[in-house]
């Protein structure tokens, strides 16, 4: 008898979810970002004006990307303070819109001093990046003055 109910549950549960989804009662959030979505470790920064390269692979600095949200943080800086932003991703370009300090108790205040973001490769409060390369394991972004190299975790 238990076996019968398990089989019935295995069949009915997915059918119920699909039915509720088709009626619009349940919506699944999806993203068209492809390989961009994920957890990225900043490993190297090139300064375009000087040709210099800085290896930051030993630092624990990350970008977390999902749908239209970006979260940046470092476990080595400011006690792991996190910053969040909405972004758009079109034509191989990422445009950040309104960085905020991740602090729900204070209403996620807007970042007004870009200097707190420079260790994450963000040098403007309204920053744009060209996606030079993107795969399931590596990403290279270029801003006005820097090239950022990432490895997917």
Q: Shape from CA axes?
A: globular
Q: What is the helix fraction of residues, given as a range? A: 10-25%
The topology string of helices and strands comes to HEEEEEEEEE
Query: By helix and strand content, what is the structural category?
Result: mainly beta
* Low-pLDDT regions: none
Short description:
The protein is mainly beta and 153 residues long.
Describe this structure in words.
With 153 residues, the protein is mostly beta strands. Helices cover 14% and strands 41% of the residues. The chain has one helix and nine strands. The chain has an eight-stranded antiparallel barrel with strand order 1-3-4-5-6-7-8-9. A hairpin with a 4-residue loop joins strand 1 and strand 2 (52-55). It is globular, with a radius of gyration of 20 Å. The mean pLDDT is 86.
Write the layout of secondary structure elements.
Layout: H1 2-22, E1 38-47, E2 52-55, E3 61-66, E4 69-74, E5 82-90, E6 93-101, E7 128-134, E8 138-142, E9 146-152
Antiparallel strand pairs: 1-2, 1-3, 1-9, 3-4, 4-5, 5-6, 6-7, 7-8, 8-9
List keywords for this structure.
153 residues, mainly beta, 1 helix, 9 strands, 14% helix, 41% strand
């Amino acid at each position: 008898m238990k076996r019968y109910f398990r089989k019935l549950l295995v069949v009915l549960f997915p059918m119920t979810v699909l039915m509720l989804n088709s009626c619009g009662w349940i919506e699944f959030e999806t993203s068209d970002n492809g390989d961009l979505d994920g957890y990225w470790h900043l490993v190297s920064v090139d300064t375009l004006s000087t040709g210099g390269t800085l290896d930051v692979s030993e630092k624990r600095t990350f970008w977390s990307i999902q749908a239209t949200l970006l979260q940046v943080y470092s476990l080595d800086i400011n006690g792991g303070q996190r910053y969040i932003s909405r972004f758009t991703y079109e034509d191989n370009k990422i445009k950040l819109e309104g960085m905020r300090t991740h602090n729900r108790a204070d209403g996620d205040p807007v970042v007004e001093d870009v200097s707190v973001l420079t260790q994450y490769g963000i040098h403007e409060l309204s920053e744009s990046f060209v996606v030079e390369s993107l795969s399931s394991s590596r990403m290279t972004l270029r801003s006005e003055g820097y090239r950022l190299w990432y490895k997917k975790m």
